[in-house]
Write a structure and sequence with these properties.
Blueprint: E1 13-18, E2 22-30, H1 60-72, E3 79-88, E4 99-112, E5 117-126, E6 134-141, E7 161-164, H2 165-170, E8 183-189, E9 193-199, H3 219-234, E10 239-250, E11 260-271, E12 274-282, E13 288-300, H4 304-311, E14 320-321, E15 332-337, H5 346-353, H6 356-364, H7 369-394, E16 405-408, E17 414-417, E18 427-433, E19 436-442, E20 446-452, H8 458-464, H9 467-475, H10 481-499, H11 502-506, E21 510-515, E22 520-525, E23 530-539, E24 542-548
Antiparallel strand pairs: 1-2, 2-4, 3-6, 3-10, 4-5, 5-6, 7-8, 8-9, 9-11, 10-13, 11-12, 12-13, 14-15, 15-19, 16-17, 18-19, 20-24, 21-22, 22-23, 23-24
């Protein structure tokens, strides 16, 4: 049922109120009501994952709007003229849930008779949180204040970097959906300054039940101002999210929807991880609409490869080519290491990469964090292999990683689960070692392994190799003993993965019958008398081994061909 026009959309159920002193409101944040959340989700997987699994986050600017609306109920008859001392301490998000309960409290702080300003403190506490997620002081009065006089330097549009706003959104350099896409035309970026235009959007469509919501601020435009700071940070391979501001002053009502308002931003300083900036927005008719002093954004750095993978998974891979396979008719082999992720939270990568079924498996490993990270790296790089393998054969854009479902058969061997069985799907193999993972995709059965080169004693060698194999290792020289034991072990592991039995179940039947000085090893299965040509390569202190069922078998004594 639609609310009447002009409703304050964040003023939910009033729990307690004392006239002229305080108001306590419970507001249910719900994906079906708060439609703008679909345009502020940190994971981009439309049509692949439900919105609740894509980490929709309440923008800081919407939180300010919510506090302003509840604070206005404490001082009826007065208008919002400013906000100050905004401090956001944690995200308000919907994590695998359709809704969350917010408690919004506003309390009279003081009245300044000289300035004729009433100050109201407000805070939002999200469900399950022990303290406020965001706090602020809202300023109300019957006349606007003019107390901010920031000093803005002149931006030289002729020499500034010009960035097309439409391209920023289209290529998802900014993750925001249509409700928050207010940047218009070109954004001009200098070393310490940013300038551009914002188009005032209509508030229609932000809330399902409110046809014409009454917004005291313009939260989508405020968010776009923060986006401009983010655009500046991107030029230095940094990314930024707003965490607070010192003071915001309003000087007139919000310009009408469709207005183009000039905005200029002066970068004041950077303290550690925090960017500090001042802002001035005009009203589109030559007047000043608002000013902000000390807008604070937290900056961080992500690896460029990871950024591209997250914003456009249909075009980019996170895995890197491994030094084996990757020939025209051979397997596609990719590798991924934790350093490739930089300081990116693995839990966020899991949300980007995994489907709902796989996410449950990931969470089942939570008691063993190292194992959980290994599992995630392996699934991520394996999905990259599968996505690229299918795309190379169909010519289509790569699928979203979460659209690729990997399961394990009863022996633990991974396989690609097809939706209807009509699409040709590759065989896959995954291996882990320490902080890295490797995976392969191939038209036939395939096995890969990765092992750290390390000194292993005679007991280990005796456990994995028969007398003839030990003699072959010895003949290769003491200087390369550790390397060749690792190559032998990796080759057997790779064959065990190809067979689906693992090396432990076939150790006694797998025998290296030939070695090539360059690293190729011929493994024979004594039970079936099948022979497999395994390619082993040294890479940064590790041995990578790869074998395919259809690998060519060279004459005895010759180097094995790449599989």
């Amino acid at each position: 049922m639609s609310r009447r026009g002009g409703a304050l959309p964040f003023v939910g159920r009033v729990i307690a109120a004392t006239r002229g002193e305080s108001v306590l409101v419970e507001r249910v944040l719900h994906l079906d009501e708060d439609l703008y959340l679909a345009d502020h989700a940190f994971v981009h997987a439309p049509g692949v994952k439900p919105l609740s699994a894509c980490l929709p986050v309440l923008p800081m600017t919407m939180s300010i709007e919510a506090m302003a609306e509840v604070a206005a109920c404490v001082v009826p008859g007065q208008g919002l003229i400013g906000v100050e001392e905004i401090k956001a301490t944690r995200w308000i998000d919907l994590v695998d849930a359709e809704s969350a309960i917010l408690t919004i409290e506003a309390r009279l702080d003081r009245y300044d008779p000289q300035r004729d300003v009433t100050f109201v403190r407000a805070a939002i506490r999200a469900e399950g949180q022990s303290g406020p997620s965001i706090e602020a002081t809202l300023l109300f009065g019957r006349h606007y204040l003019l107390e901010l006089f920031p000093d803005f330097g002149a931006l030289d549009a002729g020499t500034a970097l010009r960035i097309d706003a439409a391209r920023l959104y289209a290529e998802r350099h900014l993750f925001h959906g249509p409700a928050f896409r207010c940047l218009f035309g070109e954004v001009f970026v200098e070393d310490r300054r940013i300038a551009g235009h914002l188009r005032i959007p209509s508030p229609a469509g932000l809330f399902r039940s409110t046809a014409e919501p009454q917004l005291l601020l313009q939260p989508c435009v405020l968010d776009a101002i923060c986006q401009m700071v983010g655009v500046h940070a991107m030029q230095r391979d940094r990314y930024a999210f707003p965490v607070g501001l010192g003071k915001l002053e309003l000087y007139r009502p919000t310009p009408p929807a469709g207005s183009l308002v000039p905005v200029r931003i002066e970068m004041r300083k950077t303290d550690g991880k925090t960017i500090h900036a001042d802002v001035e927005a005009e009203d589109g008719e030559g007047g000043v609409w608002m000013r902000i002093a000390d807008l604070r954004c937290w900056k961080f750095q992500w690896e460029r490869r990871l950024v591209d993978y997250r914003r456009a998974p249909g075009q980019f891979l996170l895995g890197r080519p491994a030094p084996v396979g990757n020939t025209a008719d051979g397997p596609l082999v990719l590798q991924l290491a934790e350093p490739d992720l930089g300081k990116f939270d693995p839990r966020m990568l899991a949300r980007d990469c995994l489907g709902l079924e796989e996410a449950a498996v990931y969470e089942s490993h939570a008691r063993f964090p190292a194992r959980q990270r290994q599992w995630l790296l392996g699934r991520t790089v394996a999905k990259d292999c599968v996505r690229r393998w299918i795309s190379d054969r169909t010519g289509a854009e790569m699928a979203h990683p979460a659209a690729i479902l990997l399961r394990s058969d009863p022996s633990g061997r991974p396989y690609v689960a097809g939706a209807d069985g009509r699409e040709a799907l590759p065989h896959v193999s995954i291996a882990h070692c320490e902080d890295r993972a490797i995976a392969a995709a191939h038209c036939g059965r395939v096995g890969v392994d990765i092992e750290r080169i390390a000194d292993r004693d005679d007991g280990f060698l005796a456990a994995v190799a028969g007398p003839d194999e030990r003699e072959k290792v010895k003949a290769l020289g003491a200087a390369r003993r550790a390397e060749w034991i690792t190559r032998l072990w990796g080759a057997k592991e790779a064959v065990g993965k190809l067979l689906g039995s693992g090396v432990d179940g076939r150790l006694k039947s797998l025998e290296a019958v030939d070695f090539s000085p360059e690293g190729s090893i011929r493994i024979q299965d004594r039970e079936t008398m099948s022979t497999y040509a395994v390619e082993t390569i040294e890479s940064n202190g590790f041995i990578i081994a790869c074998v395919t069922e259809d690998a060519p078998l060279p004459p005895r004594g010759e180097e094995c061909a790449s599989a």
